[in-house]
Amino acid sequence: MNTKPVLTDVDVQTILQGAARYAREHQWAVTISVVDDGGHLLGLLRLDGAAPITATISPGKARASAMGRRESSAYETSINEGRTAYLSVPMDAMLEGGVPVLVDGQVVGAVGVSGVKSVQDVEIGKAGIAALLSP
Q: Residue 47 — left, alpha, or beta (φ > 0 → left; ψ -120 to 50 → alpha)?
């Protein structure tokens, strides 16, 4: 039987707090979501001023990243390059802004962010992951 690392509730809070700190430093109103490796929502934080729709998009980005085992931008890029078959995949928010959480080379979950430019969403997600993985 194989064993694998999993995100704990403390890990989820660390990611959310690290990402929120980075977003607030830049005055970005976003929603941040953390999911497990199966795409199930573990935590969500909607910062003051974030649009209501971001609370729907953010977990979708995280789910796409966790289940695909890659950044969610890979789907958006493929679709934009003509791979429109991805539009039939039963997954929402296949947009840039979802980042996998890797521990020992395994995806243990993902962070999804929505509310600012996609590249900034990714920055926020990676800041949350860095808060978790930094010694």
A: beta
Per residue in 10-55, pLDDT tens? 999 999 999 999 999 999 999 999 999 999 999 999 999 999 999 9
Max Cα–Cα distance, the chain, nearest Å:
46
- Both tokens of 94, joined, read 């296949």
Q: Which residues of 26-56 are buried (b: 16+ CB within 10 A; e: fewer)?
A: eebebbbbbbbbebeebbbbbbeebeeebbe
pLDDT at 93: 80
Tokens of 20: 């929120």
Side chain identity at residue 109, one-letter code: G
- Residue 38, both tokens: 């199966």
CATH number at residue 82: 3.30.450.150
Residue 2: inside a domain: no
By residue range, what is the domain housing residue 47? 9-133
pLDDT score at 7: 98
Residue pLDDT, tens place only, 108-128: 999 999 999 999 999 999 999
| Residue ranges in the chain assigned as alpha helix (H) | 9-25, 54-68, 73-80, 118-133
Instruction: Answer whether residue 126 is part of any domain.
Output: yes
